[in-house]
């Protein structure tokens, strides 16, 4: 994960933890019955859990989308490089074959001249 992603995850976790602590402390100091306070804490914890799941789902989808985009870009770039290398190889191969044929002809001509 990138440094930016780690920072974002840390900030998100800190905000959720701070919100949860603030809610719990607020409820504990509220002038209500213990049973009612526990019920409110339980409900708020459930709400925070749901919010965390939703945020996790959103972040997870963004990461999957980015991975897919990066993967596609990488594959496309790799294919372009492979085609460029193959084209260059074919070009130089043809030139080498042509030059080799010319050299063979020159050598054969020289040999024929020497035989005479």
TrEMBL record:
Keyword Membrane assigned: yes
Pfam families noted in UniProt: YtxH (PF12732)
Domain of life from the UniProt record: Bacteria
Keywords: Membrane, Transmembrane, Transmembrane helix
Entry's transmembrane regions: 12-30
InterPro entries according to UniProt: Desiccation-related_membrane, RRF_sf, YtxH
PANTHER family the UniProt entry points to: GENERAL STRESS PROTEIN
Record's protein name: YtxH domain-containing protein
Organism: Chryseobacterium flavum
Organism placement in taxonomy: Bacteria, Pseudomonadati, Bacteroidota, Flavobacteriia, Flavobacteriales
